[in-house]
Each structure stands twice: as structure tokens, then as C-alpha cells.
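Write out the 3D structure for:
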Amino acid sequence: MKKRVLSVVLCLCLASAAMAGCSKKEGTDKNETAKETTKETIAAENDNVEYLHKHLMKQTGDSALKCTTIKDYFGMELEVEPKVELTETAFQEELDYVLERYPYVFSGAVVSGETVNLDYAGSVDGVAFAGGTATGASLVIGSGSFIDGFEEQLIGMNVGDTKTINVTFPSEYKNNPDLAGKAAQFVVKINNRMLVSGKAELTEQWVDAYLTAVGGVVTDASVDGFKSYYRKLLEDSYAETRESNELYAIQEKLLEIVKTKDVPKAQKTYFENLISEQNEAQMKSSYNMTLDEYLKQTGMSQEDYDKMVSESAKEYQSYQYAIITIGEKEKLAPTEEEYTACLQEYAEYNSMTVEEFRKQYQADYQADLYFYCYADKVLDAIREKAVFRDKVEDASGSAAEAAE
């Protein structure tokens, strides 16, 4: 997933509202009122580019076209961080890193403090019980996350061994009161161990365990096949990093060259409310804090917070105005096919089908997703015609241009 939106809008925006058009002079229109940001639910039947484009233009686009001037957006000359080449040395370092991060071994005895991968099947009086069976479970020996006595009986087992473990459920077992105080048996098999320190050996067994853990899929699970697979992942990652750097440079340049004039107060209020709502939603989801609690925790005054919101809102408004102005002038609005392809990318990133993604996000987020897809297309058009030069550091540490 390419991260193509500015840092001030990393989360999906939750609001939409119809805004007044561009006034000749801010505040002179007596009918102009500051509108609160509200979510406008998009009905499923309106989830199409024709409706969403009209919605975008009504929300901010009409004002953008009246209030914005932007020139010289094609043929930009921009400095970016140099491309990173995947040398053999760099590849081996990356490979060693993943072997250290996933240090699976397939022999030896289990010791306290290490993580094991195991299968188990539990029963009481010979009858299996709900939640007592698992395959490929991960357990840190000594963590106390299983029933008392379970983990201790794994110590000394060798990888590949199967053993029946006898335990007794606590007399007060809230997870399943029916099992409280009862004796149980677990048939346990150790699949692999993870070293407490050091790195694993790259074998086909390790490849299988790693791909199972991270969800990767390869057509050739041999050692050489995995190396080819992992090399391609790294090369793609390096290429995406370069592309992200180029796109970010474009976004920064757009903010430099876009000019807005006589933006209606209602539009300014809309973007400020949008950023505020986004910030407060992030505070709640990430820190479980209200705005007042966040300000108290960080020591930020309400005045400073309002100023930060105002500056971020102005930046995002300028960015959105620039995207829409260029997009409309160059006729870059997404087609239905392009919009669906964009949703496919978002859906895959969230491990969903497009149908599942639409069902979960369509009502609240679709208008914003449409803008992001529109912005992607505009940024790609600018990037295709831009000239990028690598930043290099001279002896004094200042950046100089070097043609690619």
C-alpha cells in the first residue's frame, strides 16, 4: 500500500459537508455560515464514481476551482533521497536479520524462557472440550499463560516429541466454570523452538515455519526459492520507498506552488473540524484519551492545540484544493474501473475482498476513499513528468544535486 496522503491526514477522514462557494471577500457574504463537520452516509447504490465525484465537487471542489491558482505542476525538478541498491552484502544482512528475528530450530530440548510452537488437544474424562485444541500455537515457557503445571511439563521435551500432560483446572475457572477444579489431559506435540539468542539456520523446515508465521506464499519453498522470494520482497520494498519519497517531494512542492485566495469561512471551518475530529478519534483509538486528557498529559495548552489544528487544516485544505484543481483541469478523475482497482488495493491491504471492504467502510469512508484514489491518479500524472535528482552530501554536509 503506497502512503500517498500528507501526514496531517494519515487516518481516513470521517466527515463530509456541502460548502459555500468562493466569496469575493471573506466574511462579506451574509448568508455564509460556518458549518459543523458531519458525516454524510453514502448509500450503497451511490457507491460509484459519478455520484462520488459530484459529492466531492459539492463538498470542496467547487470552492477549490474558484479559489485556487496553480501552475508549473508538470515538469517539476525535485530532490529526493538516493535510490538504495540491494547489494549482495545488504541482502545477506537482511537475511541474517530475519533469521535472528525468527530463530526457529527443529531439534533439541525445550528450556524455560524460550518460545515454542506446539499442537495440543485437551480432554476431561476422555471427552474433548471447547477451546482445548489448537494447532501451531505459540507459547513462551515460564510466562504462566497456560494452566498451572502445563508449561513446566514441557521443559525437557525434544522437538517432534509427543507427550500427555496432566493438569487440574483452578477451582474458580471463569473462562469455563464447567471445567473448574477438574483434572484434564493434554496431548502435546512440540513443532519447533525459538532460540533465546542467536539466529536460525536457513533450511526448508525454517522456510515452512517462517511462511506459516508471517502468511507468505511461495511457489518454490526450497532454500533457493525462498532467497529469490525474499530478494524480490526487498527489491519491491526499496522501490516503494523511493516512490514514496518522490510522491512526498511532489506533495511538498504542491504546497509551495499552490495559491488560494478568498477561501470561504465555511470551508476553513470544515477543514478545522475535520482535522479536530480525526485527531480526537486517534487519541481515543490509540491512547483511550479524550482531548482534555491528552492536553493534560502532554502539557499542551488549548490555544496551542487550536493553533496546530488550524495550521494542519490550512495545509490539508491547500493540498486538496491543489489536487482537485489539477485533476479537473487535466481531466484525471478516476473511471469506474480505476476506482474499483483502487478499492482492491485498499481491500488487499486490510486482508479483505472488495465486497467485504465496501460493506465495512462504504457508508462512512467511501467519499474519502474516492478522493484518495483521485489524488493517487493526479500524483502519478505529475510524477510521470517530473525530473528527480538525488540528494547528496558534500564534505561540509550540505545537500547538492546530482543528476541520476
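The longest strand covers residues 127-140.
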